[in-house]
Design goal:
heterodimer; A: 110 residues; 3-stranded antiparallel sheet; 4 helices; 56% helix; disordered N terminus; B: 877 residues; 5 domains; 12-stranded mixed sheet; 6-stranded mixed barrel; 26 helices; 17% strand
């Protein structure tokens, strides 16, 4: 385990998951690996956080899921974005950009 | 939102499928992770182990999902609910004890609250009840006096804050209608009185000012009960002329079934008035008798304060008019009718409310202790649950759900118990407690009960939460549930101390109330009620009364016979007025009010009243001779402080020309008699004057018959004699005089009885608390005690150690109780009679009781500790 793993900011997990699936459908471990990859290893999402988030987002209508075969022929549940999910990705991305900009400015201001 | 609800329903309804899919998904994750690791060159077994370790446990992941998904709160609650039920079912003894304790504690609160609700919170059963006031006059020594017709008239002229001012006077009179004559309560009311208290009559109409005109027929309104009993609910009663005493009267209306008069206890307006007639109000006689009890309805927008200010100025104006109020200290008081009605019962109810709250708190402390002990026993299980992924908040919620479940069962049992308690209290209530009739379990009482149940559940539910505050997983698992108890027992000990303190305060209050009751029992009412038999009759005049007196006295076993217009301690309509001595300057006239009693000779010796000076009346003290009067020592002291009352002249109101034909008259004082308690046993309400019947004939008289002992069939003999004298003299209220005295004791008996019951429960609960905690401590320390004995401790020593343990909680409790009592018992002062809150004997007695009972409660576990066999104890672990 990575002792210095950066803690996920509140709300960032949802955005990362939406972003990870944005490129195409993935199963749980795939999402985890994809997040690790796109954040260059900064964030490792454990299943104890990942699955509750996936189920919550699916109940919110952002994701839909189907059972299918993984690349090595194991049954797995694949998640993809719904229309609402795409919209949510857009909204959250814009919000994040705003927050990030504001934070960067604020920190420079000293 | 709709999506969330659909998801929640799916999660709850298709739980099994949802769960299976979740399981498959999480397994597929770990399988994939394992595959990944195998692909990286790790051996399959090792790969599987590290995959599981990295994921953090399958169960934990699934639980995390369950906690977050839609409907989770409900699902968690339902799980906790079932788990709680299972836990309670698994220890039925504990559950029964806790639920019983709660049922008693909450049930007592429900019962007392239903009285507080009905009597103090709910408005009186009258239209615009919040605007109804009672007006009292003050003149000289009297502060709660009624009004004369003149004064009411002048008051109406001089006030604007009331839209109605009405008066009532209740006396004894005949029940109208054919059939056996019967004496009932008859009220004279101003024509606007009934419409103030009642929206509309059940039949007919109310009085109007036309009923007061000189040539109008005599009209009556009946109570519903009188209409049913006397007229068989005749629907055509309205308009009929019926016999009323020796006259005829027209029935013009019948009141609704639910109507009743709710007046302050000392207003002499009892709730059971059966007949109403109308009395005019006018400025005719400035010296007329003061008899009307006045109520007023505030104009909307007026307040008691504005009405009082206006009444003060009206009192000054009435003073200036002359009349009885010619001196400067005529006063007027305006109170809310409801507040004045309940001013006596309020204290008792609030005391009882405090008492039941204490009992509930003590019960709570016991349940808290039981729950804490259980939580400690279940620590091992709790630890495993925490290790398996149950969050702290989940565990707390679980414990609270269990407590709430106990509370809910307790509340249901409490409602049943409370209902029974209400019935029992209603059966034992003192007659003076007005407005108890509408005590029921209404929604407010139900809401109160459940609020109390939830509140107490939270209160004692905190205990196990505190007990499992710090979960040290590793140590607890290693200890396998064994406890190193001392530190944790602080909480239990504090609870036991608190129980002892609360029980001490309650016992102390009970001691004071019981002493009050005993003091009242020992009071000398001014007469001897033993072997005195009484009955009431319509008085047709002096001659038949005198004849009856002689015939009754001739009965075997009868020692003496007399009659009086008002029996002591009877609720009969009262009769009083102002009196002054000869030569009193105008400003001292009308300052002393006294009860006016009409009697036959021999009354004082018959009831055992003490004639202090002078003589009793004789048959020749009639209107033709000098008018004479006997006064009591209270009046004698007020008017003749030098003791020269005998032979002095007193201005009285009498009616030698027939009932109600009042005149002011001078009478010579011929005797002074010890004060007789006519109204209450504890208070001297007014002094008394006695006038011979010939000078003050009354429509109704009560006979008193002093017998040598119990006489068989006395009632029959009395009836026969009465019929011999006059067939038109029906008798009612055949009862021993001691019954009236018993009724007067009722209020104090009621308070002391309920207090005794409450403190017995409190003491029992507190000793169960001591016993329980001490037993638990002995059980926990079995091994320690075994070791002590193995290395030479004597059995007596062990016993002393456990007893000392117990007293280490009892003594601070007693100390706390003493301190608490210093704060609380002064509030009781108004309920007490002849005993001070700080009475040292009472303190000593209660202290002894508490210590003794505590010692008993501690003795049983101490004896168990003493009997511990060191060998068994050491093998025990």
């Amino acid at each position: 385990m990575d002792q210095n793993q950066t803690n996920l900011l509140q709300g960032t997990l949802d955005l990362l998951i939406l972003k990870a699936i944005g490129a195409g459908e993935l199963h749980g471990l795939g999402i985890s690996r994809r997040i690790e990859q796109i954040t260059h290893g900064t964030f490792r999402v454990k299943p104890g956080s990942l699955f509750p988030a996936l189920h919550r987002m699916e109940e919110a209508g952002w994701l839909s899921s189907d059972w299918g075969e993984s690349e090595n022929n194991r049954r797995a549940k694949f998640y993809r974005l719904t229309k609402a999910g795409h919209r949510q990705l857009g909204t959250e991305t814009r919000q994040w950009a705003k927050v990030a900009l504001a934070m960067a400015d604020a920190l420079k201001a000293t | 939102m709709a999506l969330r609800i659909r998801a929640a329903l799916r999660n709850l309804l298709h739980k099994r499928r949802v769960e299976a899919r979740l399981d498959a998904e999480v397994r597929s994750y770990t399988d994939l992770l394992t595959d990944e690791k195998i692909a990286a060159g790790i051996s399959p077994d090792e790969a599987r182990r590290t995959a599981l370790a990295e994921s953090g446990g399958l169960e934990q992941i699934k639980q995390a999902v369950r906690d977050r998904r839609a409907g989770a709160a409900f699902e968690v609650f339902s799980q906790d609910f079932h788990y709680g039920l299972r836990q309670l079912r698994r220890s039925p003894g504990f559950a029964a004890l806790a639920i019983l304790t709660l049922a008693i504690g909450i049930g007592a609160n429900t019962a007392i609250f239903s009285f507080v609700n009905a009597v103090l919170l709910r408005p009186l059963p009258y239209p615009n009840a919040d605007r109804l006031t009672i007006l009292l006059s003050g003149l000289g020594y009297s502060n709660r006096a009624p009004f004369s017709s003149f004064e009411l008239y002048q008051l109406r002229q001089r006030t604007t804050q009331f839209d109605q001012l009405a008066g009532i006077w209740v006396t004894n009179g005949p029940l109208p209608g054919e059939g056996d004559a019967e004496q009932v309560k008859v009220a004279d009311t101003t024509s606007n009185f009934l419409p103030l208290l009642c929206t509309r009559p059940a039949l007919g109409r109310f009085f109007t000012p036309q009923d007061d005109t000189p040539d109008a027929p005599n009209t009556l309104i009946l109570s519903h009960a009188a209409w049913v009993r006397r007229f068989g609910s005749d629907p055509a009663i309205v308009g009929k002329f019926v016999p009323f005493g020796r006259q005829k009267a027209q029935i013009i209306g019948v009141l609704p079934e639910k109507f009743r008069l709710v007046f302050p206890d000392d207003a002499s307006v009892p709730p059971n008035v059966e007949v109403f007639s109308s009395v005019p109000v006018g400025p005719w006689d400035p010296q007329g008798p003061a008899f009307l009890h006045v109520i007023g309805r505030l104009r909307s927008g007026s307040t008691i304060a504005s009405a009082q200010a206006e009444a003060d100025s009206a009192a000054r104006q009435i003073n200036a008019l002359g009349g009885r109020a010619s001196l400067s200290n005529f006063r007027l008081y305006v109170f809310s009718l409801q507040a004045d009605d309940v001013r006596e019962v309020r204290r008792t109810l609030l005391f009882l409310f405090g008492g039941v709250a204490l009992v509930l708190l003590i019960g709570c402390a016991n349940i808290a202790n039981l729950l804490m002990a259980r939580a400690r026993q279940r620590l091992h299980e709790t630890t495993i649950r925490a290790a398996l992924g149950a969050s702290r908040s989940r565990l707390v919620r679980q414990l609270l759900t269990e407590s709430l479940l106990l509370g809910a069962f307790g509340a249901i049992a409490a409602l049943a118990l409370g209902y029974a308690a209400i019935r029992a209290i209603l059966a034992a209530r003192p007659p003076s407690f007005v407005n108890f009739d509408n005590v029921t379990l209404d929604w407010r009482v139900l809401a109160f009960t459940f609020a109390v149940a939830i509140g107490t559940s939270m209160l004692f539910g905190l205990a196990p939460v505190v007990a499992t505050r710090r979960l040290d997983l590793t140590r607890n698992l290693k200890d396998s549930g064994r406890q190193s108890g001392w530190r944790r027992r602080h909480w239990s000990s504090a609870l036991v101390s608190a129980e002892v303190a609360l029980a001490f305060v309650l016992l102390l209050a009970t001691g004071l109330l019981t002493r009050t009751f005993v003091n009242i029992l020992r009071l000398d009412p001014g007469f001897h009620p033993e072997n005195i038999f009484t009955f009431r009759i319509n008085a047709p005049g002096y001659a038949p009364l005198h004849q009856l007196q002689q015939q009754l006295a001739a009965l075997p076993g009868v020692q003496s016979v007399a009659a009086i217009s008002h029996l002591p301690l009877d609720d009969a309509g009262n009769w009083y007025d102002y009196y002054w001595k000869e030569g009193a300057p105008p400003e001292l006239q009308n300052t002393v009010m006294a009860d006016h009693r009409s009697i036959l000779p021999g009354f004082f010796s018959t009831i055992g009243a003490t004639l202090l000076q002078g003589r009793d009346f004789t048959e020749s003290d009639d209107a033709a001779h000098q008018h004479v009067v006997v006064i009591d020592d209270v009046l004698a002291r007020q008017l003749w402080p030098n003791g020269d009352a005998i032979g002095s002249k007193l201005n009285i109101s009498d009616s030698p020309h027939g009932p109600y034909q009042f005149q002011r008259d001078w009478a010579v004082v011929i005797g002074v008699v010890r004060h007789v308690q006519y109204h209450s046993l504890t208070a001297i309400v007014r002094p008394q004057i006695y006038v011979p019947y010939q000078l003050a004939p009354r429509p109704s008289m009560s006979f008193v018959i002093h017998t040598a002992g119990a006489i068989p069939n006395l009632a029959d003999s009395v009836r026969k004699q009465v019929t011999n004298v006059n067939r038109q003299m029906p008798i009612t209220h055949l009862e021993p005089l001691s019954l009236l005295v018993d009724r007067a004791h009722a209020e104090s008996r009621f308070a002391s009885l309920l207090a005794t019951l409450l403190s017995a429960i409190a003491l029992l609960l507190a000793s169960i608390g001591i016993y329980g905690v001490l037993s638990y401590s002995v059980a926990q320390r079995t091994m320690e005690i075994g070791i002590r004995m193995a290395i030479g401790a004597h059995r007596a020593h062990v016993m002393k150690m456990i007893l000392a343990d117990g007293f280490a909680w009892v003594l601070p409790g007693v100390l706390g109780g003493v301190l608490l009592s210093l704060l609380v018992t002064p509030l009781l002062e108004r309920l007490l009679f002849g005993v001070k809150p700080g009475n040292p004997e009472n303190y000593a007695l209660i202290l002894a009781v508490v210590l003794l009972v505590s010692a008993l409660a501690a003795f049983l576990p101490a004896r168990r500790a003493m009997k511990i066999d060191p060998l068994t104890a050491l093998r025990y672990e």
